[in-house]
Protein 1
Amino acid sequence: MQREDIQKLIESGIPESIVEVEGDDGTHFGAIIVSDTFAGKSMVQQHQIVYKALGDKMGTAIHALSIQTLTPEEWEQKKKLRVV
């Protein structure tokens, strides 16, 4: 599985999301997903949304995925903190 494949799966499962996927070894990846869908949901619920978008690829083609979910407002705050 490639980063681009994971990104496409998440984007198609979570419309209008911003997705960044890192990782080059083919099995271990990290993803930042930004979506209004996450507003008002617990972290567990947010991650369940991502797992649903990945379907049966999680645990098979994707061995490990570190997930960071953010709302657009949280993403803007995080970007502001990075620029120092």
Note: The helical segments are 3-13, 43-54, 72-82.
Protein 2
Amino acid sequence: MMTKDIFVPISLESIEPLIFPDVALYIKTGGNYVLYKSNGRDFSDHDHERLSKNGVGFVFVSKDDMDVITSHMEASAERLLKGHLLNAQAKGKMIYQTSINFVNDIFTNPEKSTDLHRTKRLIENLMLYLSNNPDAITSLETVMSHNYYTFVHSLQVASLALLMHSESYSLSRDEMLDVGTGAILHDFGKIFVPQEILNKSGKLSEDEINILRRHPEEGYIYLESKGVLSPVALSIVRLHHERCDGSGYPLGLESREIPRSAQITGIADVYCTLTTDNRGSKTMPPHIAVQLMRNQMKSLFSPTLLDILEKLVCTEDIQQFLL
């Protein structure tokens, strides 16, 4: 029996019947992965309808097939987002799926981070989705998979950082692309952190904490050496753990010394960590998370930026923040 680490979940609503790549598809039954469609047979409208009626939200594919699937979905994203074939929720699942496929690929193959055209295309599609869907925060849904927490979290933070910038600042398209690129790559440096530290369930030792705290600087050094990211994007990667009272890292900067986009990404990072656990489940209501950040962390963040966060996530019709 193949283990779960070999499989990647694909949202059923992000699959276009008949033109989806010809790969084997599996469904999860209990703890087992059962072959649903083998190579050589199209995934039809009937398949889609049948699985949907049976409450199947995700199918699974082999990691070996992800390159062709990722290329197909990234090439199709803009067309689907601009078209009327999918409703808002289905578009959310599609952009979500495309985004985590991208982040997974970049984190697994760091050399692909130099493909700036691909990165900007992803951020443009994410911006297109966010701008056309007033309920974007609640439309995006998560894959409940511990193995994909880092990738899901990267999308959460990028989405919220873009919304916070759009809400209160008049930035050009290129500036927004820089913000989105830096935000979705903000944790890139974690590829240099041992997996046993990232996946540790108990309290980290002081040495382990020090190793983990090196990830912003190491991510910055690697990406800066490639010479493709803008200064804004690089500053987000390097400085998103800086705090207004000087207690952050790696440089211990204070308030106005920290670029605004890095401050916003840092706030989005903390908020998403508070509201979503490593299984993708909600852990804290938005208003509780914001109040905790205002009260127990009040020296760490700009009150003005917290006001922007609260305006976005603490509305009466938002019951939870799912990305």
Note: The longest helix spans residues 88-108.
